[in-house]
């Protein structure tokens, strides 16, 4: 979006593993991405926790497929995630989305107050994250996937769909 706010980054994320990583600790540490038009992959390779470099390096990735499928892959997790301190940075894994609304401020008529609404979050059980493991998220069906009025109103995969004749879309 065009608005950057600290709370948006706390509530809008796709995180295979969020912690206080320091990619600049080692010359071998990298954060790389690849986009081939079908899948977008971000890989954290040999990254270390800030101040806990003796624990070893972490290697993991997130793959976002054009179909909506998301895969988190964990190659190297040297310690149980539950043992990672959240003092300096939150430790979490999962998906979250939110939106921000600008409301007029009652105190100052010319200003606006930002309100962030988190509307969905999927948290992974971090005790299950380990080396050589993966987590796959598959999207649920939605009304938007239906391309005709008939499939829209008769679908048993989705619920409460209705056909908009003006837009020629299922909503």
Salient structural properties:
three-stranded antiparallel beta sheet; six-stranded antiparallel beta sheet; 11 strands; 43% strand; 171 residues; mainly beta; 2 domains
Task: Briefly characterize the structure.
By secondary structure, the chain is mostly beta strands.
Describe the 3D structure.
- With 171 residues, this protein is mostly beta strands.
- It folds into two domains: 4-139, no CATH class; 141-170, no CATH class.
- It contains two helices and eleven strands.
- It has helices spanning 6-11, 149-154; strands at 13-18, 21-22, 30-35, 39-49, 58-65, 70-76, 92-104, 112-123, 133-137, 163-164, 169-170.
- The strands form three sheets. Strands 2, 3, 4, 5, 6 and 9 form a six-stranded antiparallel beta sheet that branches.
- β7 and β8 form a beta hairpin.
- The longest helix is centred in the first third of the chain and has 6 residues, at 6-11.
- The two termini are 24 Å apart.
List the helices and strands and how they pair.
Elements: H1 6-11, E1 13-18, E2 21-22, E3 30-35, E4 39-49, E5 58-65, E6 70-76, E7 92-104, E8 112-123, E9 133-137, H2 149-154, E10 163-164, E11 169-170
Antiparallel strand pairs: 1-7, 2-4, 3-4, 4-5, 5-6, 6-9, 7-8, 10-11
């Amino acid at each position: 979006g065009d608005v950057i706010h600290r709370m948006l980054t706390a509530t809008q994320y796709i995180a295979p593993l969020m912690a206080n990583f320091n990619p600049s600790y080692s010359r071998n540490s990298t954060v790389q991405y690849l986009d081939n038009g079908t899948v977008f992959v971000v890989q954290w390779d040999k990254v270390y926790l800030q101040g806990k470099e003796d624990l070893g390096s972490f290697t993991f990735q997130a793959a976002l497929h054009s179909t909506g499928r998301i895969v988190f892959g964990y190659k190297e997790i040297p310690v149980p995630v539950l043992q990672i301190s959240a003092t300096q940075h939150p430790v979490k894994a999962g998906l979250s989305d939110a939106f921000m609304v600008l409301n007029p401020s009652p105190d100052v008529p010319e200003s606006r107050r930002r309100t962030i609404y988190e509307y969905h979050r999927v948290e992974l059980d971090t005790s299950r994250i380990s080396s050589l493991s993966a987590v796959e998220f598959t999207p649920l069906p939605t009304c938007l996937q239906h391309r005709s009025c008939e499939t829209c109103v008769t679908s048993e995969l989705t619920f409460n769909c209705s056909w908009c004749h003006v837009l020629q879309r299922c909503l």
